Amino acid sequence: MTDDTLFKRLTAERDVLSVSQLNARARSLLEDVFPQIWVEGELSNLAKPSSGHLYFSLKDSKAQIRCAFFRQHASRVRMDMRDGLQVRVRGRVSLYEGRGDYQLIVDSMESAGDGALRQAFDALKAKLADEGLFATQRKRPLPAHPKRIGVITSPSGAAVRDIISVFGRRAPFIELVIVPTPVQGREAAPLIVKALQQADRAGFDALIVARGGGSLEDLWPFNEEMVARALAACQTPTISAVGHETDVSISDFVADVRAPTPSAAAELLSPDQQAMLQQVERAHRHLHQRMRERLAREQLRLDSLRRRLRHPGERLAQQAQRLDDFELRLKRALRQQLTLLGQRHERLLARLQAQHPGKHLALLRQRLDQFDQRLPRAMTLSMQQRRQRLDNLGQTLHLVSPLATLGRGYSILLDQQGRALRSHADAKPGQRVEARLADGRLALRVEDDLDQPHTLPLLD
C-alpha cells in the first residue's frame, strides 16, 4: 500500500486517531518505504551511555536526522567515532513512538570515503594477485641473525618507539637505522616509495615498513599501487607491519612477511638475547666435550703407534732372519724339485723301455706264428663246411629241377625260339616244336588243336 492510498483512506473515513496510533502508523509507513538505505553526513551530538548503544545526529549543511546505533552493531565498528567525522551509515528509517522523533536505526558505519576506497582496494588486490606479486614462490626468508636493519616509518610515531623498545630488550647489539617518511596523507605514498628505494640500496639485512593503527583512509598510502610495486622490487627481505592486528593492507600481501603489529615485526627479526646466550653456552659445552673426546682418541692412537714403532736395527735383524729363512726354503724347494724330476725321468725311461721296438716285433712275430698255424686248419674247416652246403643245395635243386619231372615220364614242349609252351593257344597247326625228354629230344609238328570244334565228313 502506498503512502498516497493510506492518507486518502484516512481522510475519507475521517478517523480520529490517538497519538500512539498515529505514531505507530507513521513508523510502519516509514519502515515499509525505507527498509534499508545509505546516508552520508557529519557526526554531531554523539552520546555513549553505559548500555553500549550510541546516539548521534547526522547532518549536512541544510538538515539533520537523529540516529540510533545499538550495541550489537556498534561493537563491530573499529573507527574512532567523534563529532565532526564525515561518515556513511546504513540503516532503516523509523520513528521513536515515545517522543514522535523521526530517526535512522543504524546497523553499519564506515568512513565517508571508505566504500570507494574498499572497492579500489579490492580491485588493486585482484590485479596484483593476477600478476603474481602475492605468490609464495617469490617470498624471501628473513635473515636468521641480522646485524643491520632499516625501519621505514614516521620518526615521531608510536610504531618506531615500539620497535626500538623490542630491539633494546631482546637484541641491543643489532643496529637500527630509521629511514624517516610520512605514513599518512596524500603525499605519503611517493615519499614511502623513495624511502624504500633508498633503504634497498643501503645494504640492510632486512627492512621493516611500519606505522600504527588507523582508519582505512589513514592507512591508504600502504594500499597504493606504487608502494606495492616498490616493495615487490626490493632485493632486501621486507616485513610489513602496518596498523593493528585486524588491519590488512596491500603492502601486507606484497611484503615477504606480514607482521600483525610493529612490535611483532621487531620480535621476528630480533633473536632473544637470553636464548642466544643459552644456545652459545650449550654449543660451548658441546665443543669442550667433543675436544676432550678427540684428544682421548688421538692419545689412544699415539700410544698404539708408539707400541708399533721399533728400532731400525731390530727391523734389519728381522729382515736378515727372513732372508735366511727364504734361503733355506729355496734349497729345500730345489732338492724337492730335483727329486721329483729324477723320479719322473725314471718313470719315462721305464715307459720307453716298455715301448722298445724289439719287444713289439717279438710280440708281432709270436702272433704271426699263431696265425700261420691257425690258417690251414681254418681253410680246411671252411672248405668242408662249404662242400657240405653245396651238396645240400644240389640235392634241394634236384628236387625242384624240371629234369626230375622229366625222369618221371613227362616232357617239355619248346617252340623254335626255345620258349616253353604252357597253353594249347601257344601252338598252331603245322608249327614245328621240340619235345624234351629225360634222356633226349624229339622234333614234332602240330597237326591239329583238339580243343577246337571239329566236323567229320559225312561221306567218310
Give the helix/strand layout:
Elements: H1 3-13, H2 19-33, E1 37-47, E2 54-59, E3 64-69, H3 71-74, E4 86-96, E5 101-111, H4 114-130, E6 148-153, H5 158-170, E7 175-180, H6 188-201, E8 206-211, H7 225-233, E9 238-242, H8 250-254, E10 257-258, H9 262-269, H10 273-308, H11 312-354, H12 357-400, H13 402-407, E11 412-414, E12 432-436, E13 441-445
Parallel strand pairs: 3-5, 6-7, 6-8, 8-9, 9-10
Antiparallel strand pairs: 1-2, 1-4, 2-3, 4-5, 11-12, 12-13
Helix pairs in contact: 5-9, 6-7
Question: In the CATH hierarchy, what is the architecture of one domain at level 2?
Answer: 3-Layer(aba) Sandwich
Percentage of residues assigned to helices: 40-55%
Query: Taking strands numbered 1, 2, ... along the chain, how are they ordered across the largest sheet?
Result: 1-2-3-5-4
Task: State the major sheet.
Answer: 5 strands, mixed, barrel
Specify the oligomeric state: single chain
**CATH-assigned fold name of one domain:** Rossmann fold
Question: What does this molecule look like?
Answer:
By secondary structure, the protein is an alpha/beta fold. It has a 5-stranded mixed β-barrel with strand order 1-2-3-5-4. A 5-stranded parallel β-sheet has the order 7-6-8-9-10, with helices on both faces. Helix 5 packs parallel to helix 9 and helix 6 (188-201) packs parallel to helix 7 (225-233). Among the domains are: 3-112, Beta Barrel (OB fold (Dihydrolipoamide Acetyltransferase, E2P)), CATH 2.40.50; 117-271, Response regulator (Rossmann fold); 406-445, no CATH class. Strand 12 and strand 13 (441-445) form a beta hairpin. The termini are far apart. It is built from 13 helices and 13 strands. The mean pLDDT is 84. Its EC number is 3.1.11.6. Residues 133-443 form the Exonuclease VII large subunit C-terminal domain.
